[in-house]
Amino acid sequence: MLDRNAVTFVAMVLALGATMSSAWMAKAWAWDDALYPDLKGQWRVVGGPMRFDSSKPWGPGQEAPLTADYQAIFEKNLKAQAAGGQGTTPTYTCLSPGMPRVTNGYGQIEFVVTPGTTHILVQHIHDNRRIFTDGRDWSVTMEPSFLGYSIGKWLDTDGDGRYDTLEVETRNFKGPRAFDSSGIPLHADNQTIVKERIYLDRDDRDVLRNEVTVIDNALTRPWTVLKRYRREPDRQPFWREVNCAENNNHVEIGKENYMLSADGLLMPTRKDQPPPDLRYFAQSKP
Amino acid sequence: MRGSIAVVTMTATLLMSIGVAAAFDDSKYPNLKGQWIRERAPAGVTGQGPFDPTKSWGRAQSAPLTPEYQAKFEESLADQATGGPGFWPGARCLPPGMPAMMTNFRPMEIIVKPETTWILIDHIHETHRRIYTDGRSWPEWVEPTFDGYSIGRWIDTDGDGRFDTLEVETRHFKGPRTFEPSGMPLHDDNQTVIKERIYLDKADPNLLHDELTVIDNSLTRPWTVDKKFRRVKEERPNWPEDICAEGQAMIHVGKETYWISGDGHLMPVKKGQAPPDLRHFKQPSK
Fold this sequence. Notes:
The complex is a heterodimer. Chain A has a 9-stranded mixed sheet, with no helix packed on it. A 3-stranded antiparallel sheet of chain A has the order 10-11-12, with no helix packed on it. Chain A contains 2 helices and 12 strands; from the N terminus they run H-E-H-E-E-E-E-E-E-E-E-E-E-E. Chain A has helices at 4-31, 68-82; strands at residues 43-45, 109-113, 117-122, 129-132, 149-155, 165-171, 193-200, 207-215, 223-231, 250-253, 256-260, 266-267. Chain A is of the alpha+beta class. Chain B is α+β, with helices and mostly antiparallel strands. In chain B, the strands form 2 sheets. A 9-stranded mixed sheet of chain B has the order 1-9-8-7-6-5-4-3-2, with no helix packed on it. Mean pLDDT of chain B is 90; it is low at 5-22.
């Protein structure tokens, strides 16, 4: 049997608790980041960003399940790259890599989780993503973009009361886009759908996994790869500022790609490349 | 009595566990959610993104420039008058950096967490400015950047138990940077120090102030302006993808700027401008 003082004390504590918990719960609904996995810090891709499937060699070694048409485009691109050109990889002019290529993990990566949006910030060309997790659907009309429009849902897959997996679907693209620097192309119709499952490794909380599946008309079947990112140990990491246009020596004039030499002059990127047409300049008299 | 102690202990444990769940109490911070755009300029104010939003751009800013930097500014204006880009780095797809980026040429998002406040502006360069509010001091070495390195502190100025003002100091810059697109330059030594006070308007919670003071060796005194941002009404606003390189018609070869015509040919931006030197191309045989 409880004595009177204890009863009074318990009542006071419970009353205080009720007040606190209602306030906390209201707050918890607004922003309880303990419900989400700890993704703080700086992440770098494991295995390098040059290949879409980091478990396989670059280029033809990726064994991308391309249709015959797009395999032919890919082969032509490889020949153009071998001759000094850029092929079908558009990023040399500082266009965004777009999706799914940004999942290759160029540069330093930060995940900022808020209840309505998960931001993926990447120090690269133009790779920042917003993944909307506020329950919206696809009824929105949005301008197509290289990074697409991403809607996500946090899942508690093991039923422990905390979210552990972010499921994402991304649509609404424009192009040109390639899977990686070898120029494996996505379809020109830009009807790509990318699905992702992003979660911390159960055995190593400093490894983040991203299962990326690409559905695209350039492919004969959905192509799924596993990306892994490792968290840097420094909790106050150094963040580089990357500006593609700074010191970019590629110059595109019409459909031709040229380089700027060290002395600031135009130069060819391949053997016997013709110079740009100067018809709009006042011609010097002979 | 033993029973009562047990109950009290259980109750206290419950309360503690609730407290732990609420890791981040966002009600302590001002509500900065949503999309922010530059407040409409007062009637009569002209020009693209003036630094002082109450005055037209260019000379009308009455910038307190030293004679040396006033002369540089005139040089930029003269170049722009003849068709050139002047000193505005955005013409080369370089980021505006601080303080010009806070003119908010594109929509801004602010994310507040205890350790960091992020300012995201997708303009030219995908700016993700990090303002560290984790109590750190200035690092011994920081790689200079266009956006600089920002340390902030949340302040409760009215003593109501909630933070209302973010005080920020930003240092460690690189250049070239200008105050605004007219090309009004900051000093080449990049020793700029920028102090800001960011807070919601007391009478209008959808109006955000950024009292911004620039201390720079191009100036005869610190220059303070009040940047204002308006929160858009849409709960789910459109976030446009802004990629400077896309459709960019202006190209730079050495110190010269040229234009790409609609038919993909190089053309001059100034009357009588010489074409680029093509000495690195194979010359046609005579």
